[in-house]
Design a protein that fits this description.
Layout (H helix, E strand, L loop, with lengths): L32 E8 L2 E7 L2 E10 L9 E2 L5 E5 L2 E6 L9 E8 L3
Antiparallel strand pairs: 1-2, 2-6, 3-4, 3-5, 3-7
Length: 110
């Protein structure tokens, strides 16, 4: 990369991540993202933007502390990206204490 930043440089508009001074980004396929979160009765319904093919896992934690352990939402398990928005429901998620969600890619697409 001819214009790649050297160690210690920052790209304008990109905050540094916790590993180094380079911005975090995905290469190859778009990263997943939680587009919307709704409370439906006692459940939490998430709308997740996915790439076509990869397998994803929904995880939850009770804080954003760097030492916090993220746990899979067992009733959801893994799901396959469609290249569009996938709706995933966490049964009983609204009855629990404060929750944070993230989506982890567990395997690449075909």
């Amino acid at each position: 990369m001819a214009n790649a930043p050297t160690s210690g440089e920052r790209l304008p508009g990109f905050p540094p991540n916790n590993v180094n001074n380079f911005p975090s980004f995905a290469v190859g396929s778009p990263a997943s993202a939680i587009l919307a979160l709704d409370i439906v009765g006692q459940d939490v319904r998430l709308q997740i933007v996915t790439a076509e093919g990869p397998r994803y896992r929904l995880e939850t934690a009770t804080s954003l502390d760097p030492n916090e352990q993220w746990n899979p939402v067992g009733s959801v398990g893994e799901f396959t990206g469609t290249g569009g928005t996938v709706s995933v429901t966490h049964p009983g998620g609204a009855t629990q204490q404060q929750r944070f969600y993230r989506v982890v890619e567990v395997s690449g697409g075909q």
